[in-house]
Design a protein that fits this description.
Distance between the termini: 74 Å
Structural class: alpha/beta
Number of domains: 4
Number of helices: 22
Radius of gyration: 27 Å
Shape: globular
CATH architecture of the largest domain: Alpha-Beta Barrel
CATH superfamily of the largest domain: Aldolase class I
CATH topology of the largest domain: TIM Barrel
Length: about 575
């Protein structure tokens, strides 16, 4: 048999864990199975041609909210050019309305509902044996003589029965791979499909350690655990974190989705010792409104969570990504504003403002009329408006999200943003004003260079604040140099380095200076050193301003005194990506 497993990933750097788990489980057919991964950005004709050239007997697609529309369109065309190929769909996006899909699209032959490994294996055995009767295969929906048949629901697998999915994956280095050490979630959040699988199953720790050792040996760039709440079982999560710290290869980063408010002192003390950038945490907060949390059946102690997030941040070794969801039932614009300000005040490395997706099979969709949820008919079923939040207000939040991505999550305006936002009543008020400014000038219609983003922020500052402009310009310059040695300046930016040309040259020629500040460049010539580091003379004491911003102290009056700052691009902050910097004497 010629079997193709395929999917359309959201991005090129993504890899499909589902396809590899199925292939690994169907080991008896491994020589017959080929994985073909595409992205949602590929042209339909390209995907059609690549699959057609393989002439599969069986073609299976893994379906999600980001690819279902394109997958259905593709399947309709594929059936025309491959009429004898059996087309099978599986994944969360087809597991809850499979009968309707088969009624609507005659090109689909079978739908796998729920976990796919064992079900797909039994389907392959059935094809191999030429047994046309599918009624004994659990977990499928199929068509026979024009009638749609749904078989019994399949019992859940023992996860240890699924072999390691990456054994035959070529060149694991520099890849982002997905891995699961558990399935299911103990929580019942209404917007999430994981709440349907109330029983949490875990891989044995022995098995997990064996799998992780493979990643570490291959120097994988990043491993993203897809466990819905990785730390719901302390013994399991703590053991894995300890193992990764003890066997750290100094290169691989591990990403986890966690509930921060259930981390205890023992766990936090361990995490404080982890190598910077060994771990990344994604923490879903969604809202800080207690009534909304109750409505969506989400358990969270925000006060406790806040203290823990701050404690982790103080160690400067773990990147934290916090999530908010706009459009939750019961949350109006002002309530969301409070949630935003609550979470922003924690200054995570990334703050993601997402919009509610009313997923098939979720309790949220079941209660949509009660909650007054109106959402798009097509995947990803994103909210349009609710009883509490109008479409116009949601559009404002969309523009605020864009400003947040550009000016906060990029990390390129680290100190500038903290300074300018201090002039507003709250962080939300700042981003709201910036969003209004951006849209009123039509900036959302065009692409922007990095330099133009700095210029736009300065223009906004001049219009809305119009004082202490010199400080803000120097902060913008400082932020530029934090990320790279600036080669091209915007028209409004000036450097006084020319006045200190001799002093700068003497600094790079002084071996003691290099030994103290740039030890990695001790054997390099001054010319090479000047390319890998930068010495900028600021006309004001910029480092004092930076310190006050970090401590959230008032800036006050700034003295006109030159300050030399050395930026070291070989020694970057592994969490923020900033160059190390030092105030030096020249």
């Amino acid at each position: 048999m010629n079997i193709i497993l395929s999917t359309l990933n959201a991005k090129y750097i993504h890899t499909s864990l589902a396809l590899r788990s199925i292939k690994a489980y169907c080991n008896d057919f491994k020589d017959d199975i080929k994985i073909l991964e595409f992205t949602i950005n590929h042209q339909e004709n390209y995907i059609l041609n690549e699959i057609f050239k393989n002439k599969p007997d069986i073609l299976a697609f893994s379906c999600y909210i980001w690819n279902i529309e394109q997958t259905i369109d593709l399947v309709r065309e594929l059936k025309k050019v491959l009429p004898s190929t059996s087309i099978i769909l599986g994944g969360p996006e087809v597991s809850y309305d499979g009968e309707e899909l088969l009624k609507s699209y005659k090109e689909i032959d079978i739908i796998v509902s729920g976990e796919g490994e064992e079900t797909f294996y039994e389907l392959l055995r059935n094809y191999k044996d030429n047994n046309g009767d599918l009624s004994d295969i659990e977990g499928i929906i199929y068509r026979i003589d024009g009638k749609i048949i749904k078989t019994r629901e399949r019992k859940l697998l023992d996860l240890d029965d699924i072999p390691f999915p990456y054994e035959d994956f070529d060149d694991l280095s520099n890849q982002i791979l997905y891995y699961e050490s558990s399935r299911g979630c103990p929580y019942q959040c209404q917007y999430c499909l994981s709440s349907r699988d109330k029983k949490v199953r875990f891989l044995s720790l022995e098995r997990v350690f064996s799998d992780l050792q493979y990643f570490l040996k291959e120097n994988v760039k990043q491993v993203k655990f897809v466990d819905r709440t990785f730390n719901c079982n302390k013994k399991h999560s703590l053991s894995i974190w300890k193992y990764l710290m003890e066997n750290d290869n100094g290169k691989t980063n591990f990403h986890f989705e966690i509930s921060a408010d259930i981390l205890d002192d023992e766990t936090l003390e361990l995490l404080a010792k982890a190598r910077p950038s060994l771990f990344q945490f994604e923490i879903g907060i969604q809202t800080t409104n207690i009534d909304v949390l109750s409505t969506i059946e989400r358990k969270m102690d925000f006060d406790k969570l806040s203290n823990i997030v701050k404690r982790i941040k103080s160690n400067k070794n773990i990147h934290q990504h916090l999530d908010l969801i706009a459009g939750l039932p019961g949350e109006d614009y002002n309530s969301f504003k409070r949630s935003f300000n609550d979470v922003y005040s924690l200054y995570p490395e990334k703050l993601q403002l997402g919009f509610l997706k009313v997923l098939k099979g979720s309790k949220m969709r079941h209660n949509k009329d009660e909650y007054g949820l109106v959402y798009k008919d097509k995947a990803p079923y994103e909210i349009l408006f609710t009883k509490e939040l109008s479409y116009r207000e949601l559009l404002k939040l969309k523009m605020i999200e864009e400003m947040l991505e550009i000016y906060y999550n990029s990390g390129h305006f680290y100190y500038s943003i903290r300074y300018i936002s201090s002039y507003f009543d709250s962080p939300f008020d700042f981003y709201e004003a910036l969003a209004d400014y951006w849209e009123s000038r039509g900036f959302h219609h065009i692409n922007h260079s990095k330099l133009s983003l700095f210029t736009n922020l300065l223009n906004f500052y001049q219009e809305k604040i119009n004082k202490n402009e010199k400080i803000f310009k120097e902060l913008l310059k400082f932020d530029m140099y934090l990320h790279e040695k600036v080669k091209k300046f915007p028209d409004w930016m000036f450097s006084i380095n020319e006045k200190y040309k001799m002093e700068i040259r003497d600094f790079y020629n002084n071996e003691e200076n290099i030994k103290n500040y740039l030890p990695k460049l001790i054997d390099c010539s001054p010319k090479v050193i000047s390319r890998r580091a930068h010495l900028e003379i600021f006309p004001i004491n910029i480092t004092d301003i930076i310190k006050n911003i970090e401590l959230e102290r008032e800036i006050g009056e700034v003295k006109e005194e030159a300050a030399a700052v050395l930026f070291d691009y070989l020694s970057k902050d592994e969490i923020l990506g900033h160059a190390s910097f030092y105030k030096v004497i020249i």
